[in-house]
Specification:
heterotrimer, A alpha/beta, B alpha/beta, C alpha/beta, B: alpha/beta, Urease, subunit C, domain 1, TIM Barrel, 2 domains, six-stranded mixed beta sheet, six-stranded parallel beta sheet, 15 helices, 22% strand, C: alpha/beta, five-stranded parallel beta sheet, four-stranded parallel beta sheet
Chain lengths: 182, 426, 355
């Protein structure tokens, strides 16, 4: 099975601009940033959340704490994989109680990852609210989950995959649409 | 009549190693010589005879196994005299000496007789117990057993319990002209041990017995043999110290003989893994011990190779190492291991190996073993290069407890002849 | 395309490394029977995977659904409270259930063979068996007859691999690393599976060892059981053994595994108790570990047991974390073997590395 690139959805500049815009939106629509906190979902949600926090700092002068969340242990499909995926630690240095959390991830698809992320968050404490911010929403939801802050909506089919490549992780920066080919 | 043709005759008693043919009937060997002489004999005796073509093979006197366990009476789930002797025949043995640790113990004439009455593929020469039930307390009915047919005494499975009893047994057996065979072990040092004490036992976390457990008892017995003038035979000798003592005591005129098992000259304690097929008593010894045994086999200190064939039904061995009974089977791999470890490596000559299976054991028992007119019609015919793989599942023995399952060998028994009959043919 | 599927299977260890999609090398463990066959990389992997588990124990809500629906059979043929509860807790934290077999009430007492008992347990379809037994080699023996993973929770005097892992995790957390340390082990080392597993584990990281105790419990061969090049020295004198120690592992005096003659208690306390005075002979800040349960006043002075250098409580907490990591790693769907069989089909035996 190979993957073939079909088109580029976002260039590096477009990714950057989108993150800036998302940072603004979050600050505007949060009615005060006192209890705000960003939680990046591993793997690529982490650099995204850090860049959004950075943007908030630069443009709006607002300091928002950032945590990282590893949701491996909360996945619902572990009984189906032959070898359990490598665990990484979560790292949330602040208490989540009474916070307005913004979960940040790269792609929203079936919604299962976010379902697992919420389980993880609620094991840590009792946030006041949880909203979701994603770079790409590609539809095909299997859970009743919606993102409040979306970089771009893209219609996709089930054989297509959206790859978000970020310079912190992938040594390049762009969003591409690829297709599985037999 | 049976005519063995084209073989290479090796007869240690006469030192013969040449292409000679043998004629025999069901009672004895009739003639040994070249084709012409044998034809003549055959013609003289009526001309009717079967022929066995031993081309490419060695024709030796019938092998004797001085030490084995046939389990009957009492342990028939592991082996019977019938199944055990079939396995022995497959191993090239024409006579086997089963130890008395049966249930009941062979400590009286009626048990001896019942053993001798059983159907067997090869000759069965029972060894009787030294003490009643081998408990080490009082003498068994040795004279009556001798009359019934035992060829030696032993309390094997255990050592003869005390020096005092051993001395009494030796005195008595000297007067009866029976050899005393001892399983040499100091019970206090060996208590609870399941393998040889050493690097491997410490690593595996298994309790070991030091080599002194054997040698201490060998020394005890040797000194008593010197005192009493008895014939002492050390069963399954396994340590360098024991061997050196035997060598030394002979120099003082003691009649001490000894045997070594194939597994003791093949494997060492480093080979042990958590598999009860590596658990036997005496345990697999150190590299140094094994090297000493190989030397002793070559220089004549060791008199015989004996198998200590110890069958245990599969269920009883399929337990954790600590709990498993001691012992492995041995009839069918003995010759192949001897060829592999001793002859093919150049350590000893073929003649010497045949000695270790024939005249050596015979001498321990006070008898002769040779291929000559008038001698019993027992022959072992074997190949030194036939390639085969030992498959324990095919054995006629009821038991499968061997570490050699699947081992590839070069050389095997090809035909076993007992009392003129071919009891095994490959 | 899994290169690991073609690698030979070894009980006590692993199928070789494979690259997960995250480009981090991960290891699959078929069984965990011993520390001896593992590589330093595999051990570090296990320690790293224990970290998220340590974290979970700090959550207000400690229960996950990760292994929901899975069950762990706890087959303890030798009495044990702490280790058994530790494994049961680990299972429960990850949402798995445990089935309990305890020696006192076991069918073994009625004469059932070990294999039969284990097959009976296996027939109840657990996903993993954790086994403790008083005979060495039994975990290996059982693993060869079962398809499901086996974790050795202590076999006779042979190994106690999870103890070594939790000790290493504790040492690493306190000292920052486990490399090149001077480790002193005190007590009945000959009969200690904890000592052996610790030597096998820490020995792979360049640690050196001093073994101290009464001469009857210190056979010469212990100096050779580490990996090649590993320095192991015996000492019958505490002072000699404790000098320069970074880590001191105090073993308990094991009534149930000792050979005669037992050493009179007074003798042992006089010669080998780890007192505050003796502890001062080690490096400042040297760690004191004990596999538990401790007999205060026998092998260890209560002041030391409760002192700042003692790690015994962390060991217990880390024990749960390490066991959670192991259960997580081993209770996936059994891997597909190219030759279609489990350890029984492979017929490979645990073979100690002989130098």
């Amino acid at each position: 099975m190979r993957v073939v690139e079909k088109s580029q959805l976002m260039s590096a500049t477009e990714v950057d601009r989108t993150l800036q815009r998302l940072a603004h939106e979050i600050v505007e629509k949060s009615g005060g940033t006192k209890n705000l906190a960003l939680i990046g979902v591993r793997r690529r949600g982490v650099p995204l959340s850090q860049r959004i926090a950075q943007a908030m700092r630069e443009i709006d002068g607002v300091e928002v704490p950032v945590g990282t969340l590893d949701i491996t242990l909360y996945r619902d499909d572990l009984s189906k994989v032959a070898a359990h995926p490598v665990l990484q630690s979560s790292d949330i240095a602040f208490s989540v109680d009474d916070k307005d959390l913004i979960l940040v991830d790269d792609v929203l698809y079936t919604g299962r990852t976010i379902r697992a992320a919420m389980n993880a968050l609620f094991d840590l404490g009792r946030p006041r609210s949880v909203r979701l911010c994603v770079l790409i929403d590609r539809g095909h939801r299997e859970m009743p989950i919606e993102a409040s802050f979306v970089g771009r909506m893209v219609q996709t089919s089930n054989t297509e995959i959206i790859e978000v490549r970020l310079r912190e992780v992938d040594q390049e920066e762009r969003v591409v649409l690829v297709e599985r080919v037999e | 009549m049976l005519w063995i043709k084209n073989g290479r005759l090796i007869d240690p008693a006469s030192g013969t190693d040449s292409a000679l043919e043998v004629l025999l009937n069901s009672e004895r060997i009739l003639a040994v010589g070249h084709f012409a002489e044998i034809s003549h004999e055959v013609a003289n005796r009526g001309g009717e005879c079967e022929v066995l073509d031993a081309a490419g093979w060695i024709v030796a006197p019938g092998f004797i196994d001085l030490h084995c366990h046939l389990r009957e009476p009492g342990g028939e789930s592991s082996e019977t005299i019938e199944t055990g002797t079939r396995a022995a025949a497959r191993g090239g043995f024409t006579a086997v000496c089963p130890m008395p640790n049966t249930r009941p113990v062979n400590d009286n004439a009626s048990v001896t007789r019942s053993i001798l009455e059983r159907k067997a593929s090869v000759r069965v020469w029972p060894i009787g117990a030294c003490s009643k039930e081998s408990k080490g307390e009082s003498l068994a009915e040795i004279a009556a057993m001798k009359k019934a047919g035992i060829v030696a005494v032993s309390d094997d499975g255990r050592p003869v319990a005390t020096a005092k009893l051993m001395r009494q047994v030796m005195d008595y057996c000297r007067s009866l002209d029976l050899p005393v065979i001892d399983h040499c072990e100091d019970a206090s040092l060996a208590a609870g041990a399941v393998m040889r004490e050493g690097q491997t036992s410490v690593r595996l976390g298994l309790r070991g017995m030091p080599s002194a457990a054997e040698s201490l008892c060998v020394i005890r017995d040797g000194l008593l043999a010197k005192l009493t003038g008895a014939r002492l035979h050390i069963a399954h000798l396994s340590t360098k110290d024991s061997l050196e003592f035997v060598r030394g005591s002979r120099m003082h005129g003691c009649q001490v003989t000894c045997e070594v098992t194939p597994h003791h000259f093949t494997l060492i304690d480093e080979d042990v893994v958590y598999d009860s097929n590596f658990k036997m008593n005496p345990p697999l010894a150190s590299r140094e011990d094994r090297d000493a045994l190989l030397e002793g086999l070559a220089d004549g200190t060791v008199d015989a190779i004996a198998t200590d064939h110890a069958p245990h039904e599969p269920a009883s061995k399929a337990v954790e190492f600590d709990k498993a009974p001691f012992g492995i089977t041995g009839f069918e791999t003995a010759l192949a291991l001897a060829l592999e470890q001793l002859v093919h490596t150049g350590r000893i000559k073929l003649m010497r190996m045949v000695e270790l299976f024939t005249t050596g054991p015979a001498r321990v028992l006070g008898m002769a073993r040779s291929i000559a007119p008038g001698q019993p019609a027992d022959l072992t015919i074997f190949s030194t290069d036939h390639a085969w793989t030992f498959n324990a599942a095919e054995s006629p023995s009821k038991s499968r407890n061997t570490p050699f399952d699947g081992r590839e060998f070069k050389g095997a028994p090809m035909a076993t002849i007992v009392a003129g009959r071919v009891v095994y043919r490959r | 395309m899994n290169p690991a599927a073609a690698a030979p299977l070894r009980p006590g260890g692993t199928i070789a490394a494979e690259n997960s999609p995250r480009d981090v090398v991960s290891y699959r463990f078929r069984n965990l029977l011993a520390m001896e066959p593992l590589t330093a990389e595999q051990i570090l992997f296990l320690l790293d995977q224990s970290k998220p588990m340590q974290e979970i124990q700090r959550h207000p809500l400690k229960k996950l659904a990760t292994l929901r629906g899975k069950s762990v059979a706890l087959a303890f043929f030798e009495p044990s409270t702490r280790t058994r509860i530790s494994f049961a807790t680990a299972a429960s934290r990850l949402g798995a259930d445990s089935m309990n077999l305890q020696a006192e009430s076991s069918s073994l007492k009625k004469g059932e063979s070990l294999l039969d008992t284990v097959h009976t347990l296996d027939a109840m379809k657990p996903d993993c068996i954790v086994m403790r037994h008083s005979s060495s080699g039994t975990a290996d023996f059982v693993a060869r007859h079962l398809e499901i993973p086996v974790i050795n929770a202590g076999d006779g005097t042979h190994e106690h691999p999870t103890q070594a892992l939790l000790d290493a995790l504790t040492i690493r957390d306190r000292l920052g690393n486990i490399e090149g340390l001077n480790v002193t082990i005190l007590g009945d080392i000959q009969h200690s599976r904890v000592a052996r597993s610790n030597i096998h584990l820490l020995g792979k990281f360049g640690c050196s060892f001093k073994l101290c105790g009464p001469a009857m419990w210190l056979p010469r061969e212990l100096e050779q059981i580490g990996p090649p090049g590993c320095s192991i020295r015996r000492a019958t004198c505490m002072e000699e053994a404790l000098v320069d120690a970074d880590v001191i592992i105090v073993l308990r005096v094991q009534q149930e595994r000792m050979n005669e003659p037992a050493l009179p208690t007074g003798e042992y306390v006089m010669l080998y108790q780890l007192t505050e005075e003796r502890l001062k002979m080690a490096r400042p800040g040297a760690l004191v570990l004990h596999p538990g349960p401790m007999i205060r006043g026998l092998e260890i002075d209560p002041a030391v047991a409760d002192g700042p250098q003692s790690c015994v409580l962390e060991q217990v907490t880390n024990g749960v974390a390490v066991r959670m990591a192991l259960l997580y790693l081993m209770m996936g769907t059994p891997p597909e073997e190219p030759n279609g069989g489990g350890p029984a089909a492979e017929n490979k035996f645990y073979r100690p590395n002989v130098t």
